[in-house]
Amino acid sequence: MYAIVTTGGKQYKVAKGDIFDVEKLDAQPGDKVKLDVLMLNDGKKTVVDAATLAKKKVTCEVLDQFKGEKVLVFKLKKRKRYHRTKGHRQNLTKLQVTSMPTTRTAAKSASTEEAAE
User: Region annotation Disordered: residue ranges (predicted)?
Assistant: First the structure.
């Protein structure tokens, strides 16, 4: 079972217990963070209905705040004697997935919405 979640303008494929790095979030280590779900899959059934998944969240625990590896940016204009080297280290947050919604609960809420219409 896995889910596609979004944070920081990027999408991540996660499963329960996974540890992954995302763009920096305003949270301290030990805090719980809820991420928006774009898709749920349990191996047999896939749920992609935006209205159903709007209520579903993946809960993650913040493990660490850290800086990523250094990325070097080198600028050069040949024959002009111009060259610059700069470095950048992105602030990141390490998350661990603690709980995920199931496709059954997502499917039940979708079927009750269809029945109500």
Answer: 98-117
Cα–Cα distance list, 96 to 14, 30, 88 (Å) = 9, 10, 25
Pair of tokens at residue 116: 């109500």
Candidates 19, 62, 65, 60; CA nearest to 37 is 60
> Tokens 């991540």 belong to which residue?
12
Record the tokens describing residue 114, joined without a space: 């269809």
Which amino acid is it at 5? V
Mean pLDDT by 10 residues, the chain (117 residues): 94 96 96 95 90 92 97 97 97 96 67 55
- The string of DSSP letters for 38-91 reads EEEE-SS-EE--HHHHTT-EEEEEEEEEEE---EEEEEEETTTTEEEEEEE--E
Which distant-in-sequence residues (6+ apart) come within 8 Å of 16 by Cβ? 1, 97, 98, 99, 100
DSSP state of 43: S
For residues 90 and 46, the answer to whether their CB atoms sit within 8 Å is: no
Domain locations in the chain as residue ranges: 2-65+92-108
